[in-house]
Every structure is written in C-alpha cells, then in structure tokens.
Amino acid sequence: MPLDDAQARLRLVQDRIAHAAGLANRKPSEVTLIAISKTHEAEAIRPLLAAGQRVFGENRVQEAQGKWPELLAKTPGIALHLVGQLQSNKAGDAVALFDAIHSVDRPSLVTALGHAMDKAGKRPACFLQVNIGDEDQKGGCAVAALPELLAQARIATLPVAGLMCVPPADVDAAPYFALLAKIARDNGLDGLSMGMSGDYETAVMIGATHVRVGTALFGAR
Ligand SMILES: *Cc1c(COP(=O)(O)O)cnc(C)c1O
C-alpha cells in the first residue's frame, strides 16, 4: 500500500471518529484508534507508521512476535494491543510484548496474567472481554459472570481499563454496544473497547474509548 493511500485511509477514519465523537459531545481525543494489523506483513504496516499511526492491534501472540520486534526497535512510541483470544500458557509472552490485553475472559487467564505481570514487573492494561451476544463460538465471559471476574482481576492486581466485546455478526451492533456500556457503568469501569471497520462510528457515539479498525485502514484481508 503506497504512503498516500495509507495517509488517506487514516485521515478518513480519524475524520469519521471525530465526527461521531462530536455528535455525542465527546472529544476525538477520548477515542483511541487501534489499527488492527493481523495477517498483514511489516511492509503493509510501515506506510501507516509513516502516516503517524502509533497504536496497533494483533490477534495472535506468535504472529506479533514474528513481525513487531523489528518495527518496535525502529519507531519509538508504538503501543501494541492484543485483541485476540489468549491461552494461559502464552500469558508471559503476551505481557512481554503487549501494552494492553483486550481478551481477558476467564479466571484461569486472570491468574496466569497476574503471575506473568508479577514476574515481568510490567502490567499491561487489561480489558475484560464480555460475550455480549451469548454466542457459543465466541470468546468472552458471560454477562452474569462479569462481576466475579472483575473482582478476581482486582485481587490479582491486573490494571483493569474497561470492557471489550465483539457483537454478533450481520445484525445491528448498536444494542450490544449500548449493553456493554451499561454493564461498564454498573461496574464503575470507564474503558470501552468496541467497534470495528463496519461500525466504529456507531460505537463512538455510544461511548467507545477504543475502536479496533483493520479493514478500513489496511484493505481486505
Ligand atoms: C480482526 C479484528 C478486528 C478488526 O476487524 P475489521 O473488521 O477488519 O476492522 C477488531 N477486533 C478484533 C477482536 C478482531 O479480531
């Protein structure tokens, strides 16, 4: 992808975020754009870095370990977010590489992350993932299990930044975003990681603090 394209795509997404934020009387700076670079090689990521984007997301620890160390070494100020499911045995690797983890969804993972953070002396921000549409195949804890998971995360001293969800595909995401926002409010949490290429403006209007945008920035995977 040429630099001009990367700049244009980034500008467009930023403008749309700013517009949606304005409609909700929010500041654009309240919304962090996470560029989801999964499946894309370093060559595809560099133009976006050159365009000024600094926050990126990956869904697999191993894939991220393959391409990011070199990019991180060359460009200061990058923040890496893990947005995909995490196995407990990869908790140490995830803590070492990522600045935020959006897929904390079960007690065993909370325990593993707590130990990994103690050992590493580094505490990436954590989002608790909620299975907001109660779908069998999706990651995330059940809505009913969230208060207990949050309590466990606090005991393990994970820095809980907020909640994350991936709503059911092919239906209006807005009610699911609104539900996640309500659950966050009920539990005294501020961060809301929600919204992807097809619905990030909606998510921003409903209160998203972090949107995870891949296709609209990188093109189709
Ligand atoms: C791939 C992915 C995204 C980005 O999806 P796009 O539709 O390409 O913007 C966001 N969140 C998660 C958890 C993902 O796996």
Task: Describe this entry's structure for a reader.
This protein is an alpha/beta fold. It has a single domain (3-218), classed as Alanine racemase (TIM Barrel, Alpha-Beta Barrel). It is 45% helix and 16% strand. It contains nine helices and eight strands. It has an eight-stranded parallel sheet with strand order 7-6-5-4-3-2-1-8. The longest helix is centred in the N-terminal third of the chain and has 21 residues, at 3-23. The relative contact order is 0.16.
**CATH architecture descriptor text:** Alpha-Beta Barrel
So what's the CATH class?
Alpha Beta
What's the total number of strands?
Answer: 8
Please state the average pLDDT score. Answer: 97
Secondary structure class reads: alpha/beta
Q: Give the helix tally.
A: 9
Strand order of the largest sheet: 7-6-5-4-3-2-1-8
Number of domains: 1
SSE blueprint and pairings:
Elements: H1 3-23, E1 32-36, H2 42-50, E2 55-58, H3 61-74, E3 79-82, H4 91-97, E4 100-104, H5 107-120, E5 125-129, H6 146-155, E6 160-164, H7 174-186, E7 191-193, H8 200-206, E8 210-213, H9 215-218
Parallel strand pairs: 1-2, 1-8, 2-3, 3-4, 4-5, 5-6, 6-7
Helix pairs in contact: 1-8, 4-5
The chain binds pyridoxal-5'-phosphate.
